[in-house]
Amino acid sequence: MNAIVTDIVGGAVADHTRNINAFIRATHFDHPTLVLDRSIVAEQYDALKLGLGRANIHYAVKANPAREILEVLIAKGSHFDAASRGEIELCLSLGAAPSDISFGNTVKRASDIAFAHQAGLTIFAADAEEELEKIAENAPDAEVYIRLIVDASEADWPLTRKFGCARDKALGLLAYATNLGLRPVGFSFHVGSQTRRAEMWRTTLDQVADVWRAAQNAGYVLDLLNIGGGFPAFYGEAIQHPTAYAAEVMAQVTARFGDVARIMAEPGRGMVAEAGMIAAEVLLVSRKSDNDMHRWVYLDIGKFSGLAETMDEAIRYQFVTDRDHEDMGPCILAGPSCDSADVLYEKKLIGLPLGLRSGDKVIIRNCGAYTSSYSSVGFNGFPPLDVVVI
Amino acid sequence: MNAIVTDIVGGAVADHTRNINAFIRATHFDHPTLVLDRSIVAEQYDALKLGLGRANIHYAVKANPAREILEVLIAKGSHFDAASRGEIELCLSLGAAPSDISFGNTVKRASDIAFAHQAGLTIFAADAEEELEKIAENAPDAEVYIRLIVDASEADWPLTRKFGCARDKALGLLAYATNLGLRPVGFSFHVGSQTRRAEMWRTTLDQVADVWRAAQNAGYVLDLLNIGGGFPAFYGEAIQHPTAYAAEVMAQVTARFGDVARIMAEPGRGMVAEAGMIAAEVLLVSRKSDNDMHRWVYLDIGKFSGLAETMDEAIRYQFVTDRDHEDMGPCILAGPSCDSADVLYEKKLIGLPLGLRSGDKVIIRNCGAYTSSYSSVGFNGFPPLDVVVI
């Protein structure tokens, strides 16, 4: 096929990426470039919001902090989840209301908490005593939610234990927050990145509901449940339509938590991944040995210039070339830097045209999330990933 | 100890880092900051050059492209190995002679080869037919050296098969280069990053010498041997003094290759790692569960803001705090971003003071190589790693 294949999402066919595709095909790029279509972000917000219903969307800014994306979401009425002072300043500078921004990083610099408090933010995440102490000192009276560790074995990219506290500490942290003069209002969790089907939330929601009930039984009045992210993007394996997915998640939430006053959802990848494609180029096709089974294909973009999520081959991007109607064969895919770790896919090979050669254009699909902001400042002297918003 | 412990290198004791240490202790940093001491770079150049003798040092710019470092090295008479057009432009802008810069990336954009040729560069690396074709087209008459894959099992961080060709292709590529009108002048290889003792070069040099002799027997006149990098830095395990190390490597080279007209060596890490320390801060110390054996310590710097080489816990940095005279205990070390992959050391724990807490300053030793340039442009809204040169 010479054209971008259309997405098959929940059985429906959508070719919402045709504008990006046309733009990339009509444009010459000197460097790898992420092309984002703001209309896809707007559509995805509407689709998710329709399914999420009464839940507030707090877009996870870290997924893609492009100003044009944030402006679209502010206009739509989205709320925001910020990881740092830098992200808070960015949202505020574009007109987001401070009360619509949560400071969701459980590891915050004390002076950044003070800044956020002064700026008018009222909701902070925590998973440890010392974090609560910093919040109490720098944002007295703030609302806090406690992040829980959950077992998230069904996600494509399960999270480590880096964030959250175990259940045995959860109630103690609520009590500690109260003693510090804070207002503990609920819990948060993360089901795991790229959780492809809504039914995969079940076990996690059961775990969180157990803690929620234990807290209620202990007399805590909880009114905030933050269901985090995990909303998937299409990387080759079928996913549900975002509205159906979100509605099914919310039905499971309601079945377990009833009519909680405030529900927050933090889609990041699920909001923007499908709104962007990277225009890249083949730099070299080679074989290491005369007997080599596989080709090596080197692109002008790699692990240190935007494709960091190929780490451990976790996220498997899809590649489109002008030769996709020709015979295909497996290859190892690598980036352009003089770094032996800059290999994208080697354990599970990528099928690419046998005729592929240096200078050929490659479109990498669904790259709108976790690419441009991961890009290095200039590793090997390569400039950071260019971003163009259409 | 309250002061930086002194390096024990090859049995000798050197406290060449006292100026950085004093600067960090006297300075307040708002963000993690890499402090580089240019006098250590100058000393290290002299020490390596003394051992390398007739070999030309081509500093691997990618290890740290700070202008002040390049200026010191230009003044010393160093040559440079560039990975990209960006690095070539940087070296030229600071006064390096084009004939002193090699374009050592085996994966080059065709237009960058043309730029380099126009700028006066004459030596290019290649490991595949298509790369030779690009060089022949864009830099006719250029000198090329062929990079070989070697087995480098003794390095702390062995390289993948990303770079180089197998031995069965080496002579064929020399012939192909000749047919294309290029001047094939020799071979290059890389013994593996952080090869701690010179004796570990033995097997690799034997392999390369086999290919070298085969090429000579086939009638090729070779006059360039590029022995690449691999020169180690001190990360806690004893290493030889750089002069002794380099001299021993050169003795092995001479024993195998005789009086080759031109020898290139490309230290990067070995030139600059020990010239820099990062001033960082503890953001949070916590336990995930009441029964947790280990603490989690979160710093304000992580995998995406400069410490990318903690990937797979490959490089083990050393940490110094003001509490190092207190009781110590093992902990998991993590970065500040909302990314579950941003964990620095978890499989092999790090010993840190039991009294460590949020706000404490942490000095990370020997961070002058492969840190600042790996830093992301702004993942999670955190600014790139600051760099200060003293």
From TrEMBL, chains A, B:
Gene3D superfamilies: Alanine racemase (3.20.20.10), Lyase, Ornithine Decarboxylase, Chain A, domain 1 (2.40.37.10). Its EC number is 4.1.1.17. The keyword Cell inner membrane does not apply. InterPro entries: Ala_racemase/Decarboxylase_C (IPR009006), Ankyrin_rpt (IPR002110), De-COase2_N (IPR022644), De-COase2_pyr-phos_BS (IPR022653), Orn/DAP/Arg_de-COase (IPR000183), Orn_de-COase (IPR002433), PLP-binding_barrel (IPR029066). ANK repeats lie at residues 52-85. The keyword Lyase applies. It comes from the Bacteria. It catalyses: L-ornithine + H(+) = putrescine + CO2. Signal peptide: none annotated. CDD domains: PLPDE_III_ODC (cd00622). Pfam families: Orn_Arg_deC_N. Its cofactor is pyridoxal 5'-phosphate. Residues 41-273 form the Orn/DAP/Arg decarboxylase 2 N-terminal domain. Keywords: ANK repeat, Lyase, Pyridoxal phosphate. Pathway: Amine and polyamine biosynthesis; putrescine biosynthesis via L-ornithine pathway; putrescine from L-ornithine: step 1/1. Belongs to the Orn/Lys/Arg decarboxylase class-II family. This is ornithine decarboxylase. The lineage of its organism: Bacteria, Pseudomonadati, Pseudomonadota, Alphaproteobacteria, Rhodobacterales.
